[in-house]
């Protein structure tokens, strides 16, 4: 069995990768910049008590991280490094190179943490994408919006998890009496774990179409596409994802696969998991963003349900040099659908009551907030309260089942 280094966990509470590692007998040493970040979510004792060691580096710096990891490596060598959170991908890549372990190369890791630089790299390769511009201050932002023309999307170049995305669709959205553009920066958004936004903004043309996610596993530059995950959004003005369906049966996979692989090759993606979001537009597939890690928001659980296998375990194997099996990902067992539970108004969550006799096709229910927590309508993904997942023979059956469950959830908000 292997000794694995796990650097942080998504969302402060998603330890699926740790569970997968422990289930097959691997040892895991967990590194974090903030133990309290996980304690606030109530997950520390339940999950990390089974880790070989828990190391806190606070304040976090790469030098301190490397020194501590190298010392452990000298006594009990690491066989692999895992990191599923964007804001630590660069450090994980640098340490992997330092220790001679398989991971995404540092150059690509650094590139993928800047959405504007990614756009430039794709433009040099002639890959189709929305028109775009960079804004580092409010004057540049206003000029970029004017040059591109409405509608546009504004997002942080170093953002992740659908955070702090602004849609400017009509002239009302840039009303000079409100001055949204003149007071946009600085914002210095706190991403947690001691990381704040660098206030570089990507402005890009808003494209009508269907939002999909494509998840891949890559070993030595050879990509295996796991399939198309179709996402549904809450209606405007809300910006959070309402749910997902995997696999999607509405689109031809071949041109999407070709486009995704071209994007990954253009940025030099050599090893690891990637999650590429695409708008299927009238012009064909167009990139939203490419993320150098396994998809978040519990979506890997949908893949696990649909395929009847652990994507997390396959990712661990990949980092240990074991090739992913393309054959294993060709035919899912069924359709897996997720739907998120949200509040209709802002306030404090007083109580949540779940259906007592759920449909047998409901496979997972997870509640992320507890009574006493502040709640708000789903302006961004972090506003969601809980998730339900259903598995059925057809997509329609799975969607009906998940929607019915959510409709029966009773929330008391005061």
UniProtKB/TrEMBL annotation:
It comes from the Bacteria. GO terms for molecular function: ATP binding; ligase activity. Residues 19-101 form the BL00235/CARNS1 N-terminal domain. Keywords: ATP-binding, Ligase, Nucleotide-binding. Residues 339-412 form the L-amino acid ligase C-terminal domain. InterPro entries: ATP-dep_AA_Ligase, BL00235/CARNS1_N, LAL_C2. PANTHER family: ATP-GRASP ENZYME FSQD, FUMIPYRROLE BIOSYNTHESIS PROTEIN C. This is ATP-grasp domain-containing protein. It comes from Methylogaea oryzae.
